[in-house]
C-alpha cells in the first residue's frame, strides 16, 4: 500500500463512507477501528458499519427529505446506500435492511479496497500531520474524548444529550399562539402557547401517565438538574412546571390581552425560522406519547414534529463554533469531523457527512479546493444545521423538511411548499455536482 495520506478514525457509517470516498479519489487511507481489541457497550460484533439500533434507513420515497439525501449520497459515490438497497428487507416505505448481510458486505468492500488499510486498534491521538477524519460516533472512547476536549475546549464537547422536541413552524396555530419575549425584552424571539387551568391540568395528567422509553444498557437513569425530564419535574408537584419551565410571568396573550395560567414557549432553531424547539421540554417519553401529550397544548394541536425529545448518553461537538461546512476544523488544522459527533442524527445522515469529509480530505491531499454544498440541497441543509451559529444551544438533528429553506415568494399550501423546496434542492445539487464533476479528479466508484 502506498504511503497513507488520509487517516480515518472509526469504522461506523461515517468512517466507512469517508474512507471509501477518499480512496475512490485515488488517495491511500488508513482506517482505525478499535473493535474487537477494545469493545463498546453498544456493539455486538467486530463488523464495520454495524447497525446497533434500528435496521431502518428511513424513507425510500424520492420526494421525502431522507429520499433526497440518499439520492445526493449516491450521486457522490456512497457505498452504504446501494449496499443497503441490495440487502433490503420488507419495511413499507422505509429502506430496512438485513443487518448482518449489510454489515458483512460493508466490511468486505472496505477491507478489500486496494487503497484502504484497516487497522484493528484504537487510534493514538497526537499531532495532525496529514488529513485526519474523526468519525467515532456517540460512544467515542474516553481517551479520544479527552484529546478532543483539550483540542476543542471542554465547553464545546457534550457527553450528555438532552434535547427538546422540534416542530415545523408552519404547523403552529398562530391564531392561538403569539410571538413575544418575556417582559418584551429584545425582539419577539419566542412563540408562546397558552394554557388555562383546565388545559394545564389535562397536560400534566397526560404527561404523568405517558409511557417512557426504556434506557439502553450503556445509559444511566441519572440526570443533571439542568436537563431534568419534564415528567420528573411534574412528579415533584403539579405546579412545578407552572412555576418553572412553563411560568407565564412577563407574557401577555396577544389575542386575549390576559396572562395565561401556564405558557409553553418555543424558540427558533434556524435563521429562517422554519423550525422551532420547545423550550426546556426534554423528556424520556416514547415518540408516539410525545406527540399525544404535546398536541394537547393550544397552538400545537396539528404540530408536525421533525425531532422528538431525547435524553441519553451521547458525545457530540458544539459544531457551529468548531467546524466549517466542509467538515474541517476552523482552526486551520487538516482535521475533519464526520458522522454523529458533528451533530447529525441517524445512519444516513452520519454516512452523508462521512462522504463529504472523505471527499474534502482527499481533495486537500490532491491540491484541490474543498467542496461546500449549496444551501438548498439536502447536503446544504445538514451542513447549514451543524454550522448554524444562530442557535445558542446546539443539538443534534436529522434531515427534515424544516431544514430546507422556504421558497421565494412564500407558498402557503404545505404540499406545494414542500414540492418547491424539493425542486430547489434538486436543481441546486445538480448544478453543484456539474461544477466539480467536470474536473478530471471527479468522484468515481470503486467497482471491485
Q: Describe the strand arrangement of the main beta sheet, using strand numbers.
A: 10-11-12-13-9-14
Counting helices, strands and paired strands, the structural category is alpha/beta
Number of domains: 2
β-strand percent reads 5-15%
Structure description:
- The chain is of the alpha/beta class.
- It has helices at 13-23, 65-75, 80-86, 99-111, 142-152, 197-209, 230-234, 287-294, 347-365, 378-386, 414-437, and strands at 6-9, 29-32, 56-59, 88-89, 94-97, 116-119, 132-134, 157-163, 166-168, 178-179, 191-195, 262-268, 275-278, 305-307, 310-317, 335-337.
- The strands form four sheets. It has a six-stranded antiparallel beta sheet. A five-stranded parallel beta sheet has the order 6-2-1-7-16, covered by helices on one side.
- Strand 1, helix 1 and strand 2 form a beta-alpha-beta unit.
- The chain starts with 5 loop residues before the first strand and ends in an 11-residue tail after the last helix.
Observed structural traits:
single chain, 448 residues, alpha/beta, FAD/NAD(P)-binding domain, Elongation Factor Tu (Ef-tu), domain 3, 2 domains, six-stranded antiparallel β-sheet, five-stranded parallel β-sheet, 11 helices, 16 strands, disordered C terminus
Layout of strands and helices, then pairs:
Layout: E1 6-9, H1 13-23, E2 29-32, E3 56-59, H2 65-75, H3 80-86, E4 88-89, E5 94-97, H4 99-111, E6 116-119, E7 132-134, H5 142-152, E8 157-163, E9 166-168, E10 178-179, E11 191-195, H6 197-209, H7 230-234, E12 262-268, E13 275-278, H8 287-294, E14 305-307, E15 310-317, E16 335-337, H9 347-365, H10 378-386, H11 414-437
Parallel strand pairs: 1-2, 1-7, 2-6, 7-16
Antiparallel strand pairs: 3-5, 4-5, 8-15, 9-13, 9-14, 10-11, 11-12, 12-13
Helix pairs in contact: 1-9, 2-9, 2-11
